[in-house]
From TrEMBL, chain A:
Its main location: membrane. It catalyses: a quinone + NADH + 5 H(+)(in) = a quinol + NAD(+) + 4 H(+)(out). It comes from Larkinella terrae. Keywords: Cell membrane, Membrane, NAD, Quinone, Transmembrane, Transmembrane helix. This is NADH-quinone oxidoreductase subunit J. GO terms for cellular component: plasma membrane. It is an enzyme of class 7 (translocase). Signal peptide: none annotated. InterPro entries: NADH_UbQ/plastoQ_OxRdtase_su6 (IPR001457), Nuo/plastoQ_OxRdtase_6_NuoJ (IPR042106).
UniProtKB/TrEMBL annotation, chain B:
This is NADH-quinone oxidoreductase subunit H. It catalyses: a quinone + NADH + 5 H(+)(in) = a quinol + NAD(+) + 4 H(+)(out). HAMAP family: NDH1_NuoH. It comes from Larkinella terrae. GO terms for cellular component: plasma membrane. NDH-1 shuttles electrons from NADH, via FMN and iron-sulfur (Fe-S) centers, to quinones in the respiratory chain. The immediate electron acceptor for the enzyme in this species is believed to be ubiquinone. Couples the redox reaction to proton translocation (for every two electrons transferred, four hydrogen ions are translocated across the cytoplasmic membrane), and thus conserves the redox energy in a proton gradient. This subunit may bind ubiquinone. PANTHER family: NADH DEHYDROGENASE SUBUNIT 1, NADH-UBIQUINONE OXIDOREDUCTASE CHAIN 1. NCBIfam families: PRK06076.1-2. The lineage of its organism: Bacteria, Pseudomonadati, Bacteroidota, Cytophagia, Cytophagales. NDH-1 is composed of 14 different subunits. Subunits NuoA, H, J, K, L, M, N constitute the membrane sector of the complex. InterPro entries: NADH_UbQ_OxRdtase_su1/FPO (IPR001694), NADH_UbQ_OxRdtase_su1_CS (IPR018086). Its main location: membrane. One of its GO terms (molecular function) is oxidoreductase activity, acting on NAD(P)H, quinone or similar compound as acceptor.
Amino acid sequence: MKPTEILFYALTAITLLSASFVVTARNPIHSVLALIMTFFCLSGHYILLNAQFLAAVNIIVYAGAIMVLFLFVIMFLNLKTDDEESKTTMTKLAAVVVGGVLLVVMVAVLRVGTAATYNPSSYSSKVGLVENLGIVLYKDYLLPFELASILLLVAMVGAVMLGRREPGDRHY
Amino acid sequence: MNLTELIIKGILILVLFGVTLLIAMYSTWAERKVAGFIQIRFGPNRAGPGGILQPLADAGKMFFKEDFIPSQANKWLFILGPCLAILTALMSSAVIPFGESIKYDDLVIPVQGIEINIGILYVFGVVSLGVYGLMVGGWASNNKFSLLGAIRAASQNISYEIGFGLSIIAILMMTGSLSIRAIVEQQHGFAWNLFNQPLGFIIFLTCAFAECNRTPFDLPECETELVGGYHTEYSSMKLGFYLFAEYINMFVSSAIISSLYFGGYNYPGMDWVRETLTGSLGAATGHNLATLIGTLVLFGKIFFFIFFFMWVRWTLPRFRYDQLMNLGWKTFIPLSILNVVVTGFGLLFDIKYATWAIVVVMVILALVSSARAPKPAVQPQRT
């Protein structure tokens, strides 16, 4: 086995283990930490694909910002006690149905879709580097890119509006 | 990559790692000496001449203290916290170029842990992970004060990362590269980014203070309100790791500030020095000596910034929490967005010193507002 293959399999094993720990852990803080580990392993996969920029951005955005906020909120909620009893049969049933539907969708997609192929002789290993990514984003996909940024701007304005203090609100 | 190159690279990485640790160790001594100087007292002066062995004595003390884990604490996370803190602190110096290159036979090896084309993003990512050590440790202690300290650390780091990132973006727009080595190489000689980005530098410096949890932004360990903050329950070397991580972060931020804004290993007259040395000592030796001088210059800049960190710590009082948040969200983020926009205009119309316009306007506004502010009436002292 080539070294990259060994790395790939090791990373995949850690990814799957930590991802399953996210859903099985009793303590929500452990879940969050396992999710951070999963994001790390995904970044490792990006690096194996020679997409360094995506790897770094994945760590900055997900592991560095979003998961910090997750941890922040969960620490405030203090969910240390087991609240297994609060989950009714209805909730469990709904969770099973949603998970099953998602599984069906994924199986269908994987059965129908075909993996993209590449030509090893003409393939450039620099395709995932930041310069090429920038050129692709600003040339071929300019409109979707700008639309996504407008969407983010709207979401930001919405968040500010929700968090704004109304004239009659209490001052903390 | 052949064996010689691998060995030289390995030695280089080990040396850089050792130097990082040594500087962090002696920063603790230097901090107390600087504090002593500013407060007109001696500082540590018992262990060795001038207290030079004080860090070793402190380390010995830290190692032999009782390693206490609170009974209600989450044991594994309690241990994981300081480990994460020191791990992320040590990771971030890997991409900093500490010098130009070493010539050996026909090999040219850059004085840098690893050269990647997204260097500054790597630093940014690792810095944003540093907060996990504080949060996990603070939560696992099972202490309300620790938890409050951890939450303050998290919110402070997230808030100041935005200003941090936006001030870097102005630099990236001017240099057109994410690699720190490319950014440093463009500041060849005396063309330092400081002269083009004065406002970006001030925002970056202040955000670096906040990211390192240094005074005046050390609210996560604010002892007047929170006992000891996130490390209230820690003792022995676990506490030592937290404190050590802070000093390593200080070193790394100083190195990054010097590389981004103060030209890294560049100094005025470096071409002349290089030509003279290569002319008199031969190509390889002269080149290596010139590299060494550049590295020493960089370390001089780093030591100045470490001193600056300490100087500020013993001069300014701590901010209040709402002042901290207002400064981050209502002052630095709009200012850095303005900085990015003005830098863009400067690049578009080829005006090199465009961002000085913001500085000039701000100074005028500050002078006007202080001139128009009502003067406090002089109250006669009661007898």
